[in-house]
Please model this.
Amino acid sequence: MTRAIRLGPRSVAALALVSAVGVAAFGWPFLAPPSAQVNAHAQDAPWLFAGVLVLLVAVVAATISESGLGPKAVAMLGVLAATGAALRPLGAGTAGLEPMFFLMVLSGRVLGPGFGFVLGSVTMFASALLTGGVGPWMPFQMLSMGWFTMGAGLLPFPDRLRGRAELALLAAYGALAALAYGTIMNMAGWPFLDPDSTNLGPDPDAGLATNLARFTAYCLATSLGWDTGRAIVTVLLTATLGPPILKALRRATRRAAFEAPVTFDGPATKVTEHGGGAAPPDVSGRPQDQ
Model:
């Protein structure tokens, strides 16, 4: 199975860097010492968001430059990103009914982890522009969606597993990843809750265990219903629309032949019985004996 974007050394390095920064950005409230004033860093948040966005752009640039992305692959990236961005508003604000997630799962599965990370990030960026959801949370959404789609490309047996077994694998991953996406995104806003106004916010004087318990309670109280709806929709759409979409994506990938090597075959040379005839041309098209 051909894949549009493979992760080269620079892409892996850029992805590892942005992932490390993302993990630190999401998880720093849990790692802060008990004496730290967590909310005192709220004024630094815009700089952190800007840095994450720059690193995301670096991942995209490195991946595209190393993969030799052709016009057909760029076109497919644009079409899938536009489709995902158009699907997102259909369920926005309605109990987590977000159909774009199932398309990201299927696309990542067929087109691989490199294409998946770029597609997830670009789709979330495009959907934010489409829905007016541009804000300090957008880089975190791009990073989380990139991880979400890349994970589908890292699922086992991409060449051999087909049929119901593959659909079951994708549906299970989609459900778990949809729940994980919501949990991760909660980390973008939870650290800035005022601990004096709610007992679900972070406590800068508490330890790791206490803040983990507060964060768990916050997720259960505020977003579990939304995340569950997203997971159910992803499973249902993957099970019902998965087979034709997977088939269409694989057909489009084969026709695009993203990684097919370019060869130059000269015309066949007829050799006479006396040993005559011109030598076959080389890749430049000139006879070898000139």
User: Anything to note?
Assistant: Residues 38-42, 268-290 have pLDDT under 50 and may be disordered. The radius of gyration is 24 Å.
